[in-house]
Fold o-succinylbenzoate synthase.
Amino acid sequence: MDITLYRYQLPLTQPMTFHDQTIAQREGLLLHWGSSWSEIAPLPGFSRETLEQAQQETIAFLTAFKQGKTIPVTYPSVQFGLDCARRSWPILKHTPLPPYLLLQGSPDDIIWSWKEWLYDYPSRVKLKVARYPMRDELAMIRELIRLAPKTRFILDANQQWTREEAWTFMAQLDPSHIEYVEDPCPSYADIRSVATHTGVGVALDEILCCEGHWDFFPQLKALILKPMLIGSLEKCHDLVVKAKANNVKVIISSSHESQLGNRLLALLAAEWSPEQAPGLDTLRYFTDTVLDDKQQIDIKKLQVVWKS
């Protein structure tokens, strides 16, 4: 069986900042394992491993594998990529749902783009918050609600608020228009405290990668699973099972993977949580693709870093 590890670079339409790390292009690895493809792409600012570390661990595993040995891997992105490459994917009973809309940028930019919908607004949309002054973001949300009162809003704070800041912001939201706020604070205890204090629904996202323990509470509406940050498919599935046992929604979400990684996440979403639209509306922020005109991997755009 032939195995090849490639590296890709995809320019972004605009620089993006993740926990104080700004990138102008997305880089990652594509693994061709026999007839299967998978992706290994740590997300700067969120993954504990760098791309270089993930590449080194992947090459070490592949080298040992070709020698008939199996060595453990510790980095979540490598665990996920190897699991996907070796998985027997089931035949889907459900067609993957289209992702819900993601809006990011300055409050003025978001309001301007929102008005371009000409009143044919989606039923649910996700907004990135905790990036601009609180008063400006609250004014933006009020304006979006005024324009589209039937739309439900998901707000993603990416752990950027202190408990007190989250209290201040969320206490001024109208819960009837808010689906939930993702990761308002960096700790589970603070997220639970703020949600209980304000009554606004919350979801756990990147916190699942940092704190393994969580319990159900009434304001917990969803788990946002980013497999590239969590790790093995077994660990991800365990979270799915626990969430559904507590009637908590499961949303499979992107870590800004390439078109290939996005496709794999859509398959997992259709298998594990077919009733929920996935959080995969990230491909439009790329100016290029790893696919050719026939939607197959275009190896001419990739760099070989290891080959069996």
In short: The longest strand covers residues 3-18.
